[in-house]
Amino acid sequence: MIFVTVGTHEQPFNRLVEYMDDWAKDHKEKVIIQTGYSTYVPKYCEWKKLFPYQEMVEKVENARIVITHGGPSSFIMPLQIGKIPIVVPRKKEFDEHVNNHQVEFCSQLAKRRGNIIVVLEINELGDILEQYSDTLNSVRTDIKSNNENFCENFRKIVDELQIQ
Length: 164
Prior knowledge:
The protein is of the alpha/beta class. The protein has 7 helices and 6 strands. The protein is 45% helix and 12% strand.
């Protein structure tokens, strides 16, 4: 199953919702989409405007592939669960956001951390889906979260203070 979330931003993300609905028409894999404020109504996918948080977590846990928009809250949760998300940033040119900060942020994050798959051109998404398993081999999965790093460093500081 593929789970897609466009977050809760008030501008529609019809480009991604429509693309995945069209993709689902020609593929056997089940696609579930959280459409948010998108106005396009999927015909070939299960969908709901918004899922309660716990249901989102369950969908992500059960998904083979998770696709999100470029909002950090949407792609961090899959990372915490151990999934490598495909991230399609919203773009200003399609009135999906007020500027292109998602494009810039996600591109930099992918470059620095290497643990998300960023798709800047929607017409490349199908190929990424087809090659997802192979792509995972080149994505970093050994990165600790900032929380883990902070706690580990804090523990070392406390241990050093106790020794003195």
